[in-house]
Amino acid sequence: MGKLDGIIKIQGTLDNLTFYKSADGHFVRTKGGVSKNRIKNDPAFQRTRENGTEFGHSASAAKLLRTGVGIMLFHAKDRRLSSRLLGIMAQIKNLDSRSARGERKVALGLTTAEGKQLLKGFDFNAQAALNSIFYPPLVLDTGSGKVTIADFVPKQQILAPEGATHFSLQSAFLNLDFATGIFETTYSPVDNHIIDNTAISVNLNPSGVPAGTGIAFYLMLIEFFQEVNGVQYVLNNGSYNVLNILDVV
Predict the structure, then answer these.
(1) How would you write the pLDDT of the chain (249 residues) with one tens digit per residue?
(2) Parallel, antiparallel, or unpaired: how do β-strands 25-30 and 139-140 relate?
(3) How far apart are the C-alpha atoms of 32 and 43, rounded to whole Å?
(4) Rg of the chain (C-alpha set)
(5) What is the domain partition of the chain in residue ranges?
(6) Which of 11, 81, 181, 249 is the most buried (most CB within 10 A)?
(7) Taking Cα atoms as reference points, which of 217, 220, 208, 206 lies closest to residue 247?
């Protein structure tokens, strides 16, 4: 695989060369490989088919979680989120000790403590990790999804980006069944504050306990703003924002 370095950027296939664009730039590679029909039917490629099936399942599980998180995801994510989350789902799928190779499921992997631990603390924006930006201790009630943060000073306990004058907090309670694809998400109201040396306490209460018998995810979103003439503007299109999975039950 070579990287395309030139004024004219091509995408598509030309003779035996395939030109394509990824997040890392423009690349070119030669055509070739085994035909799809052989991979689909040749016994020699049984392992390949099994790996492909499980890869597709892991990708679907990652997409389902992103969908379940809902509107919060539009406020805090990085460009490699899909691939990072896919990698974790593949690890969780491997924890399914009941199913045959090629049929292992994320839903079964998440019944294990190890599977839940792989998603606990996950940051949807790798450039803004919760534990490197937000230092106050928080208390999570897994029954109601309520997040309590008592008596903290924003100026001293939040590593805010340069230019930020305000921040907001919001929590979410997601119930997601990976086996059926059914989910429900509830959100707390957005709680907005100035970044100064005044001590505050925050209570983030989701609107209710989501229905279902799936896996419970508890999330928190932190957004940063700059106030100009009484209007708050999101800093750098949200690239400093935090979205974290606080716990998985």
Answers:
(1) 555 565 566 566 655 666 667 767 766 666 666 556 654 555 554 566 666 778 898 999 999 999 999 999 999 999 999 999 999 999 999 999 999 988 899 999 999 999 999 999 999 999 999 999 999 999 999 999 999 999 999 999 999 999 999 999 999 999 999 999 999 999 999 999 999 999 999 999 999 999 998 999 999 999 999 999 999 999 988 899 999 999 999
(2) unpaired
(3) 20
(4) 22
(5) 1-32, 43-119, 130-248
(6) 81
(7) 217
Residue 217 DSSP label: E
How many C-beta atoms lie closer than 10 Å to residue 98's C-beta?
10
User: Across the chain, which distance is largest between two alpha carbons, in Å?
Assistant: 69
Model pTM score: 0.83
Q: Within 10 A of 230 (CB to CB), how many other CB atoms are there?
A: 5
b/e per residue, 47-81, with b = 16+ CB within 10 A? Answer: eeeeeeebeebbbebbebbeebbeebbebbbeeeb
d(Cα 154, Cα 134) in Å, to the nearest integer?
Answer: 9
Distances (CA, A) of 2 to 11, 27, 34: 14, 6, 21
